[in-house]
Write a structure and sequence with these properties.
The protein is mostly helical. The chain contains 16 helices and 3 strands.
């Protein structure tokens, strides 16, 4: 049994708080309902609330006035309120009162105002495109049309939770390589800019002919020390030019195609995109979004341009009355296993369920692939740093031994 703390409202709209023991989250909700309360917020007593799980992956866009973590919380809370029997207007009013920041309160108040005036929930959300993505709005629109708004909100919250788990796993896996790169790079810079110049003065006093490795290191050190502003400007200019190139359709397409061909990262990127495609499409189809509209939404959230452009071709094939599995296979960017599973789901009439299985399968493969990539990156980075630092040390020792006529 686990202890959950909760906030709820009674039939008169009065707020109540307390703790309750339950085997799981759904059991806690049921017990609160049995007390004739409408649950608003439920969290584990440890303080690690399920409702506070973060979310990214394209739901709120960059620069959103509402943090991704708060959007996740709001979605789950509203799903709980609507599922408990409150009207949408009352649910939004409750969330406005519970809002912890002025930005959240302002957005929710505006959405509730429009809903109260007769606007649909989806149209009210569409007035805040920086907060609510196209995917978010279309899932809400489909839920309203089908009379299953609470279910659509719950599916949207689940989609957010799975998406952030994938993104967090990638982030956590890259922490150690990032730290290793920072420490190793800092050590190399210190050696080149502070240690080697001291040896340079010593070698000048000796007046001996220096070995080629030593000349290379001294020249590199002198270049960095004397021309570092120009080097920084050059690097910044290259990054800026490369960024502009990536913003062009041709540049982005070539770069993304190159990424897919990389020996380690290509298969990983492909699996991530397949998982994102399957999960998003399954969620949209279960929420009642037509497949053509769903494919357009899926195409807009995929990151790799090669995969994204293939969805456009598949969408055009669907408009001509062709199935999904055939165009997927012709696109050539989806793994054969994924195509086969989707074919089986399409044939059996359970496409949304099979897409969910595809997503779960490739989520596991992504986790395994990330571990494999990291297990290879770490020793490669250590080896690279060892070679660089070793070359610096050896070049200095060669000069010292040469000056003292000691055979190395």
């Amino acid at each position: 049994m686990m202890v959950y703390s909760y906030k709820a409202t009674d039939k008169n709209g009065k707020y109540v708080e307390g703790n309750i023991s339950a085997s799981d989250y759904k059991g806690a909700i049921q017990q609160i309902r049995n007390l004739n309360y409408f649950p608003v917020k439920i969290s584990e007593d440890k303080g690690s609330s399920r409702l506070s799980s973060g979310i990214a992956l394209s739901l709120p866009s960059w620069g959103s006035p509402i943090p991704a973590k708060d959007l996740m919380t709001l979605t789950q809370q509203l799903a709980t309120l609507v599922d408990s029997g409150l009207t949408l207007d009352d649910g939004l009013a409750t969330l406005v009162k519970l809002s912890e920041t002025e930005k959240i309160r302002s957005v929710l108040a505006d959405v509730r105002k429009q809903v109260h005036a007769g606007s649909s929930f989806a149209d009210a959300l569409a007035e805040h495109p920086k907060v609510f993505s196209k995917l978010y709005i279309n899932m809400i629109r489909a839920g309203e049309a089908g009379g299953i708004l609470g279910e659509a909100l719950a599916r949207l919250a689940l989609f957010m939770e799975k998406s952030v788990e994938l993104k967090n796993s990638i982030r956590s896996a890259m922490v150690y390589p990032a730290i290793l790169s920072l420490v190793g790079g800092s050590a190399v810079i210190i050696l080149i800019t502070f240690v080697i110049p001291q040896f340079s003065k010593l070698f000048e006093e000796m007046g001996a002919a220096l070995p080629l490795p030593t000349q290379i290191m001294l020249g590199l050190s002198s270049l960095i020390i004397n021309y570092w502003p120009a080097l920084i400007l050059g690097i910044a200019g290259f990054i800026a030019a490369f960024t502009v190139y990536l913003r062009t359709n041709k540049g982005r397409l070539k770069w993304d195609g190159l990424l897919l061909k990389l020996p380690l990262f290509g298969p990983l990127i492909q699996k991530i995109e397949v998982s994102r495609f399957s999960l998003t499409l399954a969620t949209l189809l279960k929420s009642g979004v037509p497949i053509l509209q769903a494919m357009g939404i899926v195409q807009s959230i995929l990151i790799n341009r090669v995969v994204s452009d293939s969805i456009i071709v598949i969408q055009q094939a669907l408009k001509k009355g062709k199935g999904l599995s055939g165009p997927l296979q012709k696109a050539g960017v989806f793994p054969p296993m994924a195509v086969h599973m989707i074919t089986v789901g399409e044939t059996s009439g359970s496409l949304d369920e099979m897409l969910t299985k595809v997503s779960n399968t490739y989520d596991k493969e992504v986790e395994q692939s990330i571990k494999q990539v990291i297990s290879l990156i770490e020793p490669m980075m250590i080896l690279l740093m060892a070679v660089i630092i070793g070359f610096i040390v050896v070049s200095m020792l060669l000069a010292i031994f040469s000056a003292n006529d000691i055979a190395f």
